[in-house]
UniProtKB/TrEMBL annotation:
Coiled-coil boundaries: none
Domain Msp4/OMP-like: 1-122
Gene it is expressed from: msp4
Organism domain of life: Bacteria
Listed name of the protein: Major surface protein 4
Cleaved signal peptide residues: none
Pfam family, one: Surface_Ag_2
Organism of this sequence: Anaplasma phagocytophilum (Ehrlichia phagocytophila)
SUPFAM superfamilies assigned: OMPA-like
Lineage per the UniProt record: Bacteria, Pseudomonadati, Pseudomonadota, Alphaproteobacteria, Rickettsiales
Length: 123
């Protein structure tokens, strides 16, 4: 077993899925002030990207084989995600699951291949 501290950064750009009459119009969104959107209860904001900085504490388990150089591993983690939308930062409790394999090149160096799922609570 081992413990990891992990910091991640991801930037999601806004994408235009079709041609728009006005340049960059896919970056604008109408936000309503009430439950029903009417012509006088909303404001428009521009969102160029969504950024996520995460800080995680992971507990990992390595399945060690003395006769094989390949070792599968799995991790579960808790931490925080700091989500930036239009320069407004919100912090959320986050979780992460990771699985993969490590291949021991030398006693000090391993090659690792794996994947992860990162999610936030309260959504």
């Amino acid at each position: 077993a081992r413990v990891e501290v992990e910091v991640g950064y991801k930037k999601f750009e806004t994408l235009a899925e079709s041609d728009y009459k006005h340049v960059e119009s896919h970056n604008f969104v109408a936000v309503d002030r009430d439950a029903t959107l009417t012509p006088d209860n909303f404001f428009v904001m521009k969102i160029d990207s969504v950024k996520d900085i995460s800080v995680m504490l992971n507990a990992c388990y390595d399945v060690m084989h003395t006769d094989l150089p390949v070792s599968p591993y799995m991790c579960a983690g808790l931490g925080a995600s700091f989500i930036n939308i239009a320069d407004h930062v919100t912090s959320k409790l986050a979780y992460r699951g990771k699985v993969g394999v490590s291949y021991k090149l030398t006693p000090e160096i391993s090659l690792i291949a794996g994947g992860f799922y990162h999610g936030i609570f309260d959504e």
